[in-house]
Queue: 2 jobs
Job 1
Amino acid sequence: MNDFEFEIVPVDDITEIKQYGHPKYKLVFILDDVIGLFGVEYDKITNLERYKESIINALGERSKILFTCRKALYNEAANLKSFVLDKKYLADLEDNNNQLNAEDRKHILNNHCKPHDISLKPDELLNVSSTVGCMMYPLLCKLFCSKSEYQSLGKDFFENPYVCIRNQMDYLQVHKKIQYASLIICMLYKNEITVTMMARKDPRFMEIREKVFENCRVSGRNSEIKSSLDHMINTFTILTDKGYSLIHDSVYEVLAFHYGNQHQEDMLEYMSSSFVAKKFSTSDTSEYPGDLHIKIHGEHYSAYAKRLVRDLKDLELYDVFMNKKLKIKCICSAFIEELKKNVINWVISYGHSHILQFLFDQVTKHGESIWRVLDWEVEEGSESCYINNLTEQLQV
């Protein structure tokens, strides 16, 4: 793009395009994870449509917008109507015509090595793995050049990137605890720590900090967190306009897997509804290094169900009702138990006194339990029985 005199402008929000766009300048705006990270976030699509006209007017004919999203999310949202999802503007980076070839990989790796005076043998440049995901390749080149131990691994680093990153997290957790804890805090705080929140001791930030410090068995001041994040810039963190963020989605996922399988409660408390819906599983983790889900153990079924009810209250309806874990009997049963505890509270909280009166009249009139009146008593049996009753109640 620079060869064609375009200025590249990464943005974090669609409104920034409206703010910085100008018809006279040749700009390319890049907005990553445009419709969500782990699941489709429908409010983002709504927001994009809301600003569509004003953005196009601000860009004029000289500037362009490059939206990125994961292919799985695009497929999930493919039937939705939005200019962002228009197939005529789509470039699938996994398509054979768009994938990185050997020459592309050689060029990218060379560009990262040169500033660090790292020399590689010609055969190493040419044969760097073609199997590694093209989405991760530029990040891997950056990480490869950041540490001598990565360089000593040579092609193995590129062939097994998740293993290398997970091993690095193992090392940080034991030998660099404040750095590890700082990364976890960043992950739990929606992948961004700002200088302001550290300086002002933001209550939610401090709450997360204390939990993570306790779990990681480390202590420290906010200034030490900042120093740790600074130390890891271009390895695991990057600078943003307001503070720090993790360098790449893959680092975010490895961190979530690494910490989350040890401390599920924190993940259920602080991670997004889409993460909870997509990244938790009741099955064992496979031996494939890229399998980065968090296994829900039996003692956490209730906590998982409580989180689903919380998301339901927050109107994250898609993430709750399209959650495939609700098809699993143990999770569905725990979810129904949590709904039992909340149904009367919801009726009262939302001021539906006439509904509450009706429920008590039914109990008095028929001499039955409140659960039978609400049709919550479900016969033991098939999973579909649970799901059908749940669906009927939700429709009511």
Job 2
Amino acid sequence: MNTLLNKFRHIKSSKRAIGGLFVLAVMALGFGSLYVGQQNQANAAGDCSANSIVRCGVGHYGDITRVYDENHQGDLRAIYDHYWIKREVAAGDRVVQGVTNNRGEVIAEGRVVARNASSIGRQKQAASRQISIAGKTYYETTHVGGAAFRQGISELGAIVVLDANGSFKYAVMNVCGNPIFSPEPVRNTPPKPPVTPPAPQPKKQSVARCDALSVQAIDRTKFQFVANHYVENATISKVTFVVRDAQGKEVKREESTSNKFEFTQTTAGKYTVEAILTAKIDGKEQEITAANCKKQFEVVEEGKAKVCEISTKTWKEVTKKEAEDTKKYSTKQEDCEEKKVRVCEISTKTWGKEVTEQEAQDKSKYSTNQADCKEAPVSQGALPTTGPAGIIGGTVGLAAIGLAGYYYYTSRRNG
């Protein structure tokens, strides 16, 4: 013992040794905090997979009320009603934050309130069994052995509802909104508390917030904006949607008593929409917005198409939507070519010349009747008509021919 005390006195006298012990203590505390923080972060992360009954989970009972009113994914009410999960906590019941673990236990208020727990999801797991709720198929998986848990996770947070006696009624997993079912609720018989004067009830917190803003493209120029919000002990009188262009100039401001608004913009470009809630909190009207209630969207340029305008037989560029009018436009080359017809050119009496239908309308130049190109026939009994000049010309011609013959004959004879 004396030896140990002497060593301690030696360490105490050494400032360097004391400093080293202090550094080791801080490092140990840091590693411990990091491990706990990582565990808490893993449990707090929302599950946004397709297996979740509520995508990305629920944080508190107000979220359960909200998704119940929305009938989240079209079937949430039927699922929650099947497991006796109420829209609001029944009178006398209470909500506590608990956990469910891979031993099948549900723990709340530091004690086991249910055993052999299981939960349902939308996708089949390794140890799940198929069940039907309101005509749809779901899968129930036991928590015993961790079949319903991801690898490396031994417990997950849960919103637990207890009755007035502290006994288990139902629970919902925070990360995914999946209901927890237990065939073995542990009945609690708490001792009667001593009679104490009632404590003043704390004032309920008033909350109004804009949770998210979604932008859905209906077509190239039309969009639907939906602002999701949460209120507690407050009221929302209107939602104002403000649309600005890429330069920040306001192009539209619309006040709506609902959380939806359809917006049409034909000018191509990038835009931003912001949802602003007007809420009454504690008797005072306030405007509320958030970073996740501001979204960007784009009106894209409309595509062009080269078409033939049928009425003018000319090619031009129009929008693809305009090109769908087949009475006015065509994409066929032949629809833009003038049709040609064979005609008789009256001035030359020539048949077979091809001209356009429009040119053929000029009756002074053309005829579509082939008979108009035939010469008038000469009567067989008629003789050619000649005058005195014709007779003289004929006589001179005959004399010339005779004289030429005579000279030829003489030249041959003398030669």
